[in-house]
Write a structure and sequence with these properties.
Layout lengths: L1 E5 L2 E5 L3 H9 L3 E3 L7 E7 L2 E8 L2 E7 L6 E5 L1 E9 L5 E7 L9 E4 L21 H4 L5 H8 L2 E2 L15 H10 L12 E5 H4 L5
Parallel strand pairs: 6-11
Antiparallel strand pairs: 1-2, 3-4, 4-5, 5-8, 6-7, 8-9, 9-10, 10-12
């Protein structure tokens, strides 16, 4: 119950505990700065929560639409950014990096996988989303699993490779055919933004 006093007149009325929690959360602010594990950064600004995660380079099984067998291809280091606000759907960004970030000024590159737009946002299609309980935490393990475990279609396949500028899938198939163990990071195309700029820390 919320009680308001105006002179001698007192008024009481019921309030939703969730609304009180939301009002209190709007005043909470913290920032971990760059961390040493795969979780690079956790930032809370009121009800807006940002988590940045690093996935080291290694071979990954990727399913392309129409194929029952996954490609086994090396991927470069990847960064996944998840932003949640209240009960709205989470916003994501995924980018490639040539090394593990040691500061937020690290340059970003287009992720060499389909279904990721030039802005870094993801075309999820019919892929199931991460459950609400997981969204309240700071681990992006489920988010990575949903992204890389889904079947990739023909959306947003261009503009990610110097060798295969029209369709990144051709390069991925080529890498598997060669049994490549490392992704050719020299082939990555720059986003022309740093991690700090994507997070809004710099112009």
């Amino acid at each position: 119950m919320l009680r308001k006093q105006e002179g001698e007149l007192a008024t009481e009325y019921p309030v939703d505990p969730a609304q009180i929690a939301l009002a209190l959360a709007a005043k909470v602010t913290f920032d971990t700065g760059l961390l040493t594990g795969n979780t690079l950064l956790v930032r809370q600004d009121g009800v807006k929560r940002t988590v940045v995660d690093y996935r080291p380079p290694h071979k990954t099984g990727l399913f392309l639409d129409g194929s029952e067998t996954a490609l086994r291809v090396p991927l470069p280091g990847l960064i996944l950014i998840r932003v949640t606000t209240d009960d709205k759907a989470p916003q994501y960004g995924v980018f490639a990096v040539k090394r593990r970030p040691e500061n937020l000024d690290i340059p970003l590159f287009h992720a060499p996988i389909p279904n990721v737009f030039s802005s870094g946002s993801i075309c999820w299609g019919t892929v199931p989303r991460v459950e609400d309980a997981a969204l309240r935490g700071s681990s992006l393990a489920n988010d990575w699993m949903m992204l890389l475990g889904s079947a990739f279609g023909d959306h947003a396949v261009g503009g990610k490779s110097k060798r295969q500028p029209q369709d990144i899938r051709k390069l991925l198939i080529e890498l598997e055919g060669k049994k490549a163990t490392r992704y050719p990071t020299g082939d990555l195309l720059p986003v022309k933004k740093s991690l700090a700029q994507v997070l809004g820390d710099a112009q």
